[in-house]
């Protein structure tokens, strides 16, 4: 089914970005500009800050204001759709909350962020929490490094 089919031919989710789907599931009203910002976020393979989101959105629709991007990002964060990350550099960056458990290696020279998973590290974190009498509910690892 293509995204061009009518309501009879496909489901709404066939035409929505994954961030937009999360918004609808949480009962958010989806304006055209929110849909655009959700699409830009869904298509991002990096961790953009608000200014970068704005640049990408305005390239698609020059009617988008930076204030709208800030408000939308704040709302998506409040609803648990986006997670704020602080990778240094003085600007918050954002990560969709649906990406599952993963960690970040931040290149301190370039600001590039490499996502990775490590089952051994995750198991060790659970073991440490259990040893201290806790159940692990969230795990976040951010490693800052420099290429040799």
From TrEMBL:
What keywords are assigned to this protein?
A: Cytoplasm, DNA-binding, Iron, Metal-binding, Repressor, Transcription, Transcription regulation, Zinc
Compartments annotated for it: namely: Cytoplasm
The answer, when asked if Transcription is one of the entry's keywords, is yes
The UniProt entry's coiled-coil ranges are: none
Classification via Pfam families:
FUR (PF01475)
SUPFAM superfamilies in alphabetical order: Winged helix' DNA-binding domain
Main location (coarse class): cytoplasm
Question: Highest taxon of the source?
Answer: Bacteria
Subunit-level organization: Homodimer.
Q: What protein family is recorded?
A: Belongs to the Fur family.
The record's listing under PANTHER family reads:
FERRIC UPTAKE REGULATION PROTEIN, ZINC UPTAKE REGULATION PROTEIN
Name of the protein described by the UniProt record: Ferric uptake regulation protein
The organism of origin for this protein: Sediminicoccus rosea
């Amino acid at each position: 089914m293509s995204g061009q089919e009518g309501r009879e031919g496909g489901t709404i989710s066939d035409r929505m970005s994954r961030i937009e789907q999360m918004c609808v599931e949480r009962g958010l009203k989806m304006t055209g500009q929110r849909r655009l910002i959700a699409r830009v976020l869904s298509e991002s393979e990096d961790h953009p800050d608000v200014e970068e989101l704005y640049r990408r959105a305005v390239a698609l629709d020059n009617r988008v204001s930076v204030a709208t991007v800030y408000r939308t990002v704040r709302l998506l964060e409040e609803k648990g759709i986006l997670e704020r990350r602080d990778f240094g550099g003085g600007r918050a960056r954002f990560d969709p909350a649906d990406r599952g458990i993963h960690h970040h290696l931040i290149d301190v020279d370039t600001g590039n962020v490499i996502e990775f998973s490590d089952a051994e590290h995750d198991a060790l974190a659970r073991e440490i929490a259990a040893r201290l009498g806790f159940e692990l509910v969230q795990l976040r690892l951010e490693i800052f490094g420099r290429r040799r």
